[in-house]
Amino acid sequence: MKRRILSPKSLKARIDTLTRRHRELDLRITREESRPAADTLRLKQLKQERLGLRDAIRLTQTLLKRLDPRPARRGWQQQFHSG
Questions:
Q1: What is the pTM of this model?
Q2: DSSP string for residues in 31-83
Q3: Cα torsion for 19, 35, 48, 10, to the nearest 10°?
Q4: Which of 2, 14, 5, 25 is nearest to 62 (CA)?
Q5: What 3-state DSSP class applies to 2?
Q6: Closest Cα to residue 31, out of 15, 14, 46?
Q7: What CA–CA distance (Å, rounded) separates 22 from 47?
Q8: What is the pLDDT averaged over residues 11-36?
Q9: 24: alpha, beta or left, given left = phi > 0 and alpha = psi -120 to 50?
Q10: CB–CB of 33/43 below 8 Å?
């Protein structure tokens, strides 16, 4: 099996894609919940899928941080008063 090389650019694109899909699921869940006779089984499936996307986003963010260890921008107070 061929190993994949991860780049910060590809991880950021993956996060963007997962975030977009998460937002779309939010809309689908909201629409289903607003129906007079919402399908509870369908809602459960959609919510499980949304949780899976959230976990995938967090995992990808962790990979990105490990790959690109530069510290995130901090406020000027934290830069001078770290400790």
A1: 0.75
A2: HHHHSTT--HHHHHHHHHHHHHHHHHHHHHHHHHHHHS-PPPP--HHHHH---
A3: -20
A4: 14
A5: coil
A6: 46
A7: 10
A8: 96
A9: alpha
A10: yes
pLDDT of residue 6: 82
CB 22: neighbour CB atoms within 10 A? 17
C-alpha distances (whole Å) from 33 to each of 18, 28, 36, 41, 43 are 22, 9, 8, 12, 8
Distance CA 57, CA 35 (A): 29
Top-confidence residue, 72 or 45? 45
Query: Which residues contact residue 39 at a Cβ distance below 8 angstroms, ignoring those fewer than 6 apart?
Result: 32
What tokens does 72 get? Answer: 């995130």
Q: Which residues have a Cβ under 8 Å from the Cβ of 43 and sit 6 or more positions away?
A: 29, 32, 33
> What are 45's two structure tokens?
């499936």
